[in-house]
């Protein structure tokens, strides 16, 4: 018999172990999955709080206990928008257009998808529902499938008198995405 467990409460919150215990026949192997999920930035190096107990199959007596050495790191996306104070179109004469730009920089370690949507639009609601669903799954320790995410739309999006192009981008680490905003001073 075997048992795999986290010895400290704080560690139990970070790891899901499946299966936690089992019975093995002689010369038999078993695969145990240890899943790490943190809701804050965290670094573990050679953490030995996850332990394996080997027990006698008949008596249940613990024969051996040893730690698993685990290293893991969780990080958040790090982004910044330039200019930081927003964009100002100033006075624009009726019938004319003025163009400004901003960029979103990825100072993190992973690609991220970015999409401009109208507040309270169907796209906004769909994205919000997806984010909430993914967050709930992550809280329960369920892996989030991003294989169907695809690239965000790249064409322009009209938001009242403003047009933003592109509507979205995939921003790799250490790079930025440039967006152009046009303001049309009309009716």
UniProtKB/TrEMBL annotation:
Which species is this record about?
Bicosoecida sp. CB-2014
Q: Which GO terms describe its cellular component?
A: axoneme
Q: Name the chain's protein.
A: MSP domain-containing protein
Instruction: Give GO terms for biological process.
Output: axonemal central apparatus assembly; cilium movement
Against InterPro entries, the record matches this protein to: Hydin-like (IPR033305), Ig-like_fold (IPR013783)
């Amino acid at each position: 018999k075997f048992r795999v467990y986290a010895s400290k409460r704080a560690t139990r919150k970070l790891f899901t172990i499946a299966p936690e215990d089992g019975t093995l026949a002689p010369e038999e192997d078993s695969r145990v999955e240890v899943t790490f999920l943190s809701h804050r930035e965290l670094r573990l190096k050679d953490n030995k709080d996850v332990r394996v107990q080997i027990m006698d199959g008949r008596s249940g007596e613990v024969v051996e206990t040893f730690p698993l050495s685990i290293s893991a790191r969780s990080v958040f996306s790090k982004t910044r928008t330039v200019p930081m104070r927003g964009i100002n179109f100033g006075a624009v004469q009726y019938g004319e257009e003025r163009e400004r730009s901003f960029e979103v920089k990825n100072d993190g370690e992973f690609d991220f998808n970015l999409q401009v949507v109208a507040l309270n639009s169907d796209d906004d609601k769909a994205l919000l529902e997806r984010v909430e669903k993914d967050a709930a799954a992550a809280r329960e320790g369920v892996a989030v499938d991003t294989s169907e995410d695809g690239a965000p739309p790249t064409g322009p999006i009209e938001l009242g008198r403003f047009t933003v192009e592109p509507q979205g981008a995939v921003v790799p680490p250490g790079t930025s995405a440039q967006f152009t905003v046009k303001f049309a001073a009309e009716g």
